Amino acid sequence: MLLYISTIFLLGFFAIIDNLISNTQYSKFRTFFYGIAYLLVALQFGLRDKMATDWDMYESFFKYYFISIQDLDFKNYSVEVAFQILQIGFHYISDNYNLFVLFQSLVFYFVIFFVFYKILSAPFVAIMLFFSLFIGMVGANRQSIALAFCLMGLYYYLKTNNYYIFFGFIVGGFLFHTSALLFSIYLFFNRKIDSKYILIAILCSFIIGNTQLPFKIFSLFGVVSEHAMSKTEAYLDSAKQELERAQVSTFGIAKRIIIPLFFIYFRNKISLKEKYFNVFLNAYVFGTCFYFLFYKTLLVMVSRGGFYFNVFEALLTSSLFFIVDKKYRPIIVFIFIVMSIFYLNQSISPYPEIFIPYRSVFNNLL
User: Fold this and answer.
1) What does pTM read for this prediction?
2) pLDDT value at position 165?
């Protein structure tokens, strides 16, 4: 736990330094500090050992199932074909699973850091929050790669307005995890949506989510194809198991109501400083609606489908940086540090024994 908290404080320190040197002759050092932060986070997760909810499953896939080109199985609905090819290709480099984990971590966090740096005005703050919010999802290998593809697609779409490139990346993500198709909705997020429509959408989602309608509609997707049937059955079985042991926190519900209201109030002020603020807000609102639709019946959809929208909580929250004067921003960073420690505890609370103590490939217990 000490390692995670130390990382949060260090990222917070970098955020304060970044605020102090921005628009000065020392701003060129920003990239240097950002590089250090990248190595700190990417290596921390890349050098972990047996630290993930799905560690045994993915290690088994790597060691026994997808080793050579003859093992490629297009009818295997458990592991998407692109991930099979990635594993088979990596075997030509090494048969060491820990090296494969390191490779994935370096690539995934490179994309995260790159996109955050390019589209955010306060990337260090967003990275600190993302680190805390995402840690509980470490080990979702295929979906993490899919998210990386989707974020790159979003970045290029925001910069070029070329939706062909955007959907090209979505397809790339889809080949690693079919849920990446949900990210297509981001095509409509770079715009200001009237506040009343946002509030109506959240309210309707909450009402519908307290019925059995989402469960019944989702059950119908199994008739589309054999692949869809396989995925639908897996999610429905998982949903029953999740509902038997899960408890939806009052804090989680309250947070998803309060945050949109808060940022709607400050939207005009923040939009002047954060160019893509409406994307962050709309993504979070959609994630909130998605949460309320399924939190009573299909919690597995909240974790799987909400994966592509929850990431924007970090980006949205980091924009708070710009509602105060520059001289007061170190205080905001301290508040973010406290929030990050809280989010960290929440993120690992379902399986604390997996993440504490930290276990590395060097077998150092910190």
Assistant:
1) 0.86
2) 94
